[in-house]
Amino acid sequence: MIGLFILGDFSMLLVFTVSCLIAASPFPTVWFDASDLGSGSFSLEEPGTYTVWVWDLRTASRTRPALTLDKSEIALPNSRRGDKEYIWHKLDAVRLSSGKHSVELSETVARFVLTTDPTYRPGEIVKDMQVLDVPEAVRDRRAHTAKHTDTVFTFPVYRSIEEWESKAEVLRRRILLSSGLWPLPNKTPLDAQVFGRVQHDDYSVEKVHFQAWPGFYVTGNLYRPVGEGPFPAVYCPHGHWEEGRLVNNDINSIPGRSITLARMGAVVFTVDMVGYNDSSQFEHRWSKDEYKLWGIHPFALQLWGSVRALDFLQSLPDVDPERIGVTGASGGGTQTFALMAVDERVKVAAPVNMISSTMQGGCVCENAPLIRFENSNMEIGALMAPRPLLMISATGDWTRETPHVEYPAIRSIYELYGAVDRIENVHIDAGHNYNKSSREAMYRFFGKHLIDPEKDWGSFTEPPFEVESEEKLRVFINGSYGHDSDEEVIATIKRQIELRVDSDYKKIIQGDTELAERYRLAFRDTLGATIPESNELASIRISMDERTGYVVERWILGRKTEGDAIPAILYRAKDPGRQDAVVLVSPEGKRAFADARNIGPGTEILDLIEDGKAVLTIDTFLTGEHHSPYKETKRTRIGGFMDTFQPTDTAYRIQDILTSVAYIRARRDMTGNVKIVGVDAANLWVRFAAVIDPTVKYTQTGESSFDSGDDEQWEEKFYIPSIRTLGPLRISVELSN
Question: Which of 255, 405, 453, 494 has the most CB atoms less than 10 A away?
């Protein structure tokens, strides 16, 4: 979509904007895409006699007007030159005053141009602005396909431990990055308080609170066996049952589960999800892109709370720190597999009714950004391998296919480790639950693998239990306790991240190359970016022109498996000798580097050609020819968690730069030496591309009012979840150098 200006001084780059402008010049000229004229009017700043041009079908009928301008119909000419489907038609000249004018285009007219220049030739001008000779948008699958919580996923085949562990490393790092936990934060004092003990003959229960972050409370109950221990411990997060950790009915009983495990000989800690029962500093369902820049959201608070819960359990004198298990159902199942994925201290796990190929979790607390770019919950579950894993599923929910889909998929990873005896599936004929049958399956598995492997647990059943009153279980009666507000907690987390970034930045500039490389991988995983191999590319040449002194090639670049489409124009020498190359990147796309007045590439390109360089201009994601003249392309969105499943627009634009560099390097007439040049807002794109591929040199040009310390500007201009946790500008400068 363009509203176009023409400059009188062509020493400057052309700049296209959505609004329609006329620059002061000897020959005022304005361009409009059909989509720019939805209001049916436009404004002129300068009066004059304007020649009218339209880009329309070559076979368009003369029986209807090409357009109606100020209620006067203007027809197509009789002469139709050219053999293309769409051609530029020169219409009548009209006298127009300054001010507002009405216009109605024929439905097939794609572009409309007014110019006072009698020699103007828009058909020649666009040869350096566009690849396609029809008014269509390139078909980029990334814009039209949306993964979401109900996408049906398949589990890849991994043929070796090495192949799997390479993938597992990325998955673990991305989970931590998503939650502002990479590198793992310094662990501040828990200041744990255990009180309100109720003693029974065969177990006790107490109230607990500790601070996962300074001022952020984790709350729950601690169930203990009788005796001195040390005992194994079981961490029990809950799901989205209304009563939270206090739920006790036929479908689920967290107190019943805890009492039984304590009687079996395990210390049990049941915890509140954020926003439930005694955890009242935040609501449960909340999310802001501004906070996600820092990896702050419910999933992150719960994951860090879970990590600190293991710290709490290991601090107890009656707990064996080497024997810790975790189990939860539904949203508690999500917390279970998230924790077991990133914390090796979890020795046994049982996520219940949650690992699914068809439903990834419906709450914001289960859909952190980044975590499912190239995977589903199946791969996250497989991160438990080769530690003992029990997958409990049900006939009446989204785990109904587990025995023949999800379980065999994850079992295939255990096969790589020779550990198939450590994974089991128990399929329960019930709806969504953690009922008695499901709990009994868990007791037997935990008994065998965690509590007492020497004992026969094969026929163990849950004995009767009696749950304490709510007053004896609640940590803060009526929620009346002094604590930091949600905004104060968020500010504390940001300060902790900033302190870590400051420390790491100093280490990097002092020469810590290992840390620098770790940050490079973190940038890559946060962006979801890759450096394509030559054989991964799928590029199509649309056309080629030979000009005086150089050749112009028009391409659609992309990758075989991704379905991406990058319109690109390459200017190269006629001589077959190998050339260095420069990739020019603008937020306005490749048209920004054309000279509309003199027809051809702008002076920047001509200077580079004169210097012996090949030059590539591109339209990164959702710029330029990603839109048709008739309609702006907008990304397909399904559900509320796009950034969980797919990179953002900014991340895709950075990927397009990397793909374009890979294309240049794959050409045998290029040396492989590539420089990328960013203009204005594209400065950040090229810098981050150079972080991912440090062999690329980059230059930044133009002006930018971007304030890297302003979250609102990041959110509006360069939204990338968790990017603020990487000290993006300071550290990226060091990494890209």
Answer: 255
